[in-house]
Each structure stands twice: as C-alpha cells, then as structure tokens.
Amino acid sequence: MVLLSGGLDSATAAAWAVKEGWQVAALSVNYGQRHAIEIDSSRRVAAALGITDHIILTIDLAAFGGSSLTDAANEVPKGRSADAIGAGIPSTYVPARNTVLLSLALAMAETRQAEGIVIGVNALDYSGYPDCRPEFVEAYRRLAAVATKVGVEGLPIDILAPLQHLTKAEIIRLGSQLGVDYGLTVSCYDPLASGQPCGDCDACQLRAAGFAAAGLPDPAVAPPAHQ
Amino acid sequence: MVLLSGGLDSATAAAWAVKEGWQVAALSVNYGQRHAIEIDSSRRVAAALGITDHIILTIDLAAFGGSSLTDAANEVPKGRSADAIGAGIPSTYVPARNTVLLSLALAMAETRQAEGIVIGVNALDYSGYPDCRPEFVEAYRRLAAVATKVGVEGLPIDILAPLQHLTKAEIIRLGSQLGVDYGLTVSCYDPLASGQPCGDCDACQLRAAGFAAAGLPDPAVAPPAHQ
After folding, report:
1. Count of domains in chain A?
2. Which of A78, B114, B169, B175 has its CA 20 to 30 A from that of B154?
3. A147:B153 CB<8 A
4. ipTM for the complex?
5. Can you say whether residue A187 is alpha, beta or left, with left for phi > 0 and alpha for psi between -120 and 50 degrees?
6. What's the whole-model pTM score?
7. Which domain holds residue B102?
8. What is the pLDDT of residues B12-42, one digit of tens each?
9. How many angstroms away from the CA of A198 is the closest CA of chain B?
10. How far apart are CA A220 and CA B25, in angstroms?
C-alpha cells in the first residue's frame, strides 16, 4: 500500500516500492486541499508506475478549517526565506493530515492483505510538520500493530518511510535512478489558474532548491524563454 | 471532542463529557455503514445533549470492501450465541474503523483547541474488535502526543475512554443516571426497512442482554403487545 499524493516525494516512494518487487496498491485522498490538481497528478504517476489498484477517496477536511491549505480564507505564505521555512510550523500544516492519511491507508491495507504501508515523509528538508518526523512514524507503527485484525491474528502491517532520512536532493537523485518522471508530479500549494506552479510557496521553493542541489533540471517547470 | 455514532455507548460517553463540564464538540462519520440510520440518531443525541458544534463527515470506506458492515455482498451474522459473539473477530469488523474515526477526531480536535477526544469503546462486552481494546487506546494516545502541532508546541490532545472497563449493563446504568434518553439511540447493524432494530444481530443481542442485566427496559424497543 502506497500513499500517493501526486507530489515528488510520494512518487519516489511509490517507485521504490515497485522496484522492491512488491505488488503495489495505491491510495490518494482528496481532502479539500487547494491543490486538488494533485489528484490528477496521482493518477498519472500511478499509471506510469503500472499501479492499477488505485483508490481515490474524497473527504472534506476543510469542514474543520484550521489550515491555509484547505481554508480559502487563509493565504498560503509566499516568498519566505529558507530560514523562515525551516522554523516553526507553518499555516499550511493541515491538522493531523498524515494521521488521517495513514489511517485510511491502514483500512485499505487490511482489506488487501498488504504487508506494509509506504509513505513518502521526510524530515530533513521538511518545513516543520510534526507528522513527518521519525517519532511520528514510529508511534504509528506501534498503533498499527494493535489496531487491526491482521495485527491481532497474524503479522502487523508495517509502516515504511524510505525517504525519512533523505534530503530533497537525495530524494530527487534516487527517483531519477528509479526512472521517476518528475514532469508528472506537482508540489505547489497554490497553483496558478493555468495549472503551473506558483514558484513562491514553501513547497515550490523546497522543490527548486532540491533540483538545484541535485544538479538536475525540474521537468515540471518550463525553461526560461530565450531572449 | 466526542465521537458520536448514534449508538448507546457513544451517547453515554458524550453525556459523561457534558456532565464533566466541558464545552463539547461532536463528530459523526457516515462511512458507508449499512446502518446509516445511526447518523440521524447522532443528530438527535447531540441535540438532546445541547451540543451545537456537531460535524457530520462522509467518507466511503465501503470503497475498500472487506466488512459485512459496509459491503452489501456480505451478510451480517444473525442469531449467534453469546459464546460465538465473544469468540474471534466477526465479519462486521470494519478494517481500522476506530483508527480512522480517532484520526478524523484528532484533526477536528486540533482546530477546536480541544484538550481531549472522548470515545465510547469498551472491552468487556465487546464482540471481538481489536480497536476497542485498552492497548489500542493507549497506542493512540501515544500517537496523538507526537502527531499534532498542539502536541509539539503545548499539551498533547488526550484520548479518553470513560467506558473502557464497564460492562454493557454498567454503561446503561451510568447513562440512565446521566439522563441519557436511550430511545434516541440505535445499535442494530442491520435495521429493518421500518427503521426498527432487527433484534438478531450481535449488536441487538448485546444491547438486549445489557438492558436485561441492568434491570431496565430499552426505550428503543416497542414493548410486546398485550394479548
């Protein structure tokens, strides 16, 4: 079971799972995020990786409010410095998002007799989300072991975070070796009407810095026009 | 934050939370269960308890399959003996249901600055669900402490299971003392077209045995007609 957001990290994690030789099913969740264009991306990524068991669930986390990522009344922060991105928990934090996503994946994993759930969280270049940290993943692993029928009757479903300790540049290098087409992925929190990334939000900035550090071009960004 | 299913247990847990003097918000989830009549019940219970912040979310767990409670192709077991109900995990187990419900409650709790989540799970008279056990609640409590922004920056959101160690009869006695109108609640997994409980599923049997042991009539069941 792979959680597939349509972003760069989860595409890399999914490619890793396919490369490991597992039979992979994928779950994407339309949770009311501003960047629902992600869902189209997740479809393209799943197709490119040959994942046919791909469920897209809709759930309205925006009904709770509390995040600039789901709440149209809040602005997504733009043009923040690298220091600002690394400090504190930003308004784009969606309350308990990864907890909700893992829980839905756990439900689906149990019906598929899956051995593990792969999630693309990483903590080195993260922008301050508590539910991307290793202690979160470990706590979820312990929960999964007691939460399910398969955990009680047989082997618990494991939680795998293969990107946990990689930088964005290392993730991009890994994905490139695995043949991920990053042109299919979208990272922007607040895409333009054209579908193009805004270039200024935290996610766009972390992505651009990652490609730069990896020494690779980002195929999702149009090259600057020649003058 | 109280998880309100519309059943007997969660109505009692909610009444307990109100009695404790907390400002209570409630979450109900229409997850594709056969007994969606529960949702109407949850509305009536919330109204009776004076809970005005009541969110009803819809999420299609039936898309995953794997449970007779959400999958129309599977039969809900009927007429099982008390021994059979107590042994093993029944087909009405919904994969990872309480994990999903608590995760959604955690998301809502964080937006409400709630101090705790109240869930009506109990393990004494339970019919074999892994996610009703004390070890599940404890694992979730540990997860909640590392999963959220409030947990990182301040006090974690606690998980409260006030009915955990009560029998069904003790729950009914507690609720009766708290003034819960059990006539508003519904427990049946597979209600008749009329909305009346089937009387034969595990939930109906556990409920009937609980009222009998408490020495109280069940106001949700019509008394037998006089001859």
Report:
1. 1
2. A78
3. no
4. 0.87
5. alpha
6. 0.89
7. 2-214
8. 999 999 999 999 999 999 987 766 788 999 9
9. 26
10. 43
